[in-house]
Q: What sequence folds into this?
């Protein structure tokens, strides 16, 4: 019997988990290590027990569900995502990838399908970083890029400490066997919603994610001279607003139009003193730049600095630019993306190669094992929003593709029953 | 004996008044109808009594100091400014014009100089508008553009009502005879600091102010579509930030460079939701436009609207523009500016014609009598600031020019004593 995704079951699981931390507007508030996060872990653990799988957790409360394979000495193949959400998050970001991975285990179990090695589902701790910064703590600790102790003193906006909430979360799942951080794996696959509109608009079922963009955040402050809006003529102005808009206009009209892979976003902008009838003395804004290529990312930053310096000079202003965040780009494994492609073709699902603009746990996991991601369309590209929505067919096809790619990745043994 | 300004006395008066509401940083906080404002009125009234002048006030607490002339039936010539300040205001804005006008009366008295008509010094109520909005209430009520009752219900940020504070201020000066609002005057002259840098930089002693610019405030909101900074490619962006900076850059590179009389200032700018890694859904900013010509002001607004519409369209965004304030320009009397010029030439003070970019009480007074203003340089053009500073020589020359222009304006009779 060939393992098949049970779409109805997957949708029911998505609904059941969406009840945990459900918000009035139809989203979820299930932030990392909160009571809602613990309730979601509890529900998963109960499902695991019912199916006879084994459950493990590590020192940062990454949760693992293991279905044994033929050879227990071989490293497990890992699939999954995360169960925590933004404070006004959607029902699919993270949950879809975790529950589709669990559906893979259930489908294999339903079909009595034996795999060469164990397959494990992971729910990474604190992907979002909204309650305890930074995000992707679980995968960072898993690959050794950080240690849980590094985060113990982090305090949330509601005054709770990461260390205490971590201990409480671990204690709430006594049936999960503790295991060391970074238990070896053979490969990692993560299914996730796109969080952008391209798959939906292009009518595709899936994105084969080949890389994750690098991200750099800049804080830019132009300084000039405050002055009366009415009495200060052009010759006497040192207006940082004029310098900033001229620099931004040049950058916006060149960087993205000249390079399809580049992203340039100005999300915050403020003026000081912020009076209608006063030329500001300072203007401050943020720049979020992304690129899949590290050299290009550095070149964009250099260009931003040069254009800002030039614009400041032209308005007799000064400019200061600092880098507040710098995450280098990462490439996924060609072996793994090939397996996803093979699976997509076999299922006749239309797909394209794409680059992830958002971070994911997979970016860290790719440091220790062959890794790739599958994206499915989400409505209007909206995520981190209570209105986030995934068509049932897209969710189910995503799980089917994950199952097929997982089977491509573990040496499978079809057992005739 | 020829009347002469006593420079030492003027500087002493400026120092004495700067003690009232003095701030740590060397400025003053003497907001309209506050106890500090009342203390300043008290000091002026005491000086008046000591010199044997008469003091009057009207229903909005405009304060008048009268030195009689030969013919009491002729309307008085009015000179003066205001005594109230911004919360972190300077020592000269308003006070210089009021105290220089009082010095004119003292100089005439010292010289036993009889004038054809009475000369009165005025201290207008609430020029600044910082405690009770709007500003220039006193001159508005004087010319009949508003009635004190219109403002009674205005409440300050500290919860005081304008009506109560007005009554308390009037009651605090029982020796001032009440007179009707709008008692006729023959002309009005106001000395004021420039509040801009041009006189200082051009090495001039005075500005002969021929007009006050019109002012219009616009609130502009570009709306697009929020999106993930990393996952949304250019083709899918509807970024209101890009639309706003492109519109502003076009406007900033054309309106002021093409027209020396135009002013364009963007003092406030904000984004929503204001997240570093999100394309904003809304971007809002203010535009302060000024021009001495009403048609040009309207043309600038029309151009701003057209450029914003075009920029919005190019980014698949929308834009809404509302006018939040509209003060038409006003011209001063050629007769009065000629008199100031004649006086400046006689005193060999270098001057230029100029247009005021700020409002002043004189703008309203010009509706009922021939009016003009004299500007003197202030350091670095700074005002509405505790560091506001006027060189003693500039203050004294301003008073000398005011005295001479006042004498040009009233038919003077030199009395040999």
A:
């Amino acid at each position: 019997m060939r393992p098949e995704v049970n779409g109805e079951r997957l949708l029911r699981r998505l609904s059941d988990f969406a009840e945990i931390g459900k918000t009035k507007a139809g989203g979820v508030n299930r932030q990392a290590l909160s009571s809602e996060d613990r309730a979601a872990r509890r529900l998963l653990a109960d499902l695991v027990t019912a199916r006879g799988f084994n459950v493990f957790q590590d020192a940062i409360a990454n949760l693992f569900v293991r279905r044994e394979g033929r050879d227990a000495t071989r490293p497990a193949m890992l699939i999954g995502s995360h169960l925590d959400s933004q404070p006004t998050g959607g029902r699919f970001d993270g949950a879809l990838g975790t529950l589709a991975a669990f559906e893979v285990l259930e489908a294999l179990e339903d079909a009595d399908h034996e795999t060469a090695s164990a397959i494990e589902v992971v729910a990474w701790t604190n992907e979002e970083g909204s309650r305890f910064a930074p995000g992707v703590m679980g995968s960072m600790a898993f690959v050794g890029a950080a240690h849980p102790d590094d985060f113990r003193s982090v305090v949330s906006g509601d005054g709770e400490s990461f260390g205490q909430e971590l201990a409480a979360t671990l204690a709430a799942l006594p049936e999960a066997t503790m295991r060391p951080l970074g238990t070896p794996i053979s490969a990692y696959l993560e299914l996730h919603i796109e969080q952008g509109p391209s798959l939906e608009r292009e009518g595709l079922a899936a994105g084969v994610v080949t890389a994750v963009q690098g991200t750099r955040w800049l804080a830019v402050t132009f300084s000039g001279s405050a002055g009366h809006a009415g009495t200060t003529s052009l010759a006497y102005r040192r207006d940082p607003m004029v310098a900033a808009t001229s620099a931004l206009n040049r950058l916006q009209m060149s960087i993205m139009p000249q390079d399809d892979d580049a992203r340039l976003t100005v999300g915050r902008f403020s003026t000081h003193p912020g009076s209608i009838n006063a030329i500001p003395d300072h203007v401050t804004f943020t720049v979020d730049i992304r690129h899949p290529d590290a050299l290009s990312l550095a070149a964009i930053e250099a260009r931003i600095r040069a254009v800002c310096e030039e614009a400041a000079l032209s308005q007799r202003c000064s400019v200061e630019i600092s880098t507040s965040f710098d995450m280098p780009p990462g490439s996924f494994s060609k072996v793994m993306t090939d397996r996803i492609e093979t699976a997509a073709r076999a299922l006749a699902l239309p797909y394209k190669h794409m680059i992830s603009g958002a971070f994911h746990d997979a970016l860290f996991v790719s440091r220790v094992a062959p890794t790739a991601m599958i994206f499915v369309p989400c409505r209007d590209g909206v995520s981190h929003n209570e209105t986030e929505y995934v068509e049932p067919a897209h969710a189910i096809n995503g799980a089917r593709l994950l199952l097929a790619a997982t089977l491509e990745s573990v040496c499978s043994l079809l057992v005739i029953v």
Notes: The CA atoms of residues 229 and 276 of chain B lie 8 Å apart.
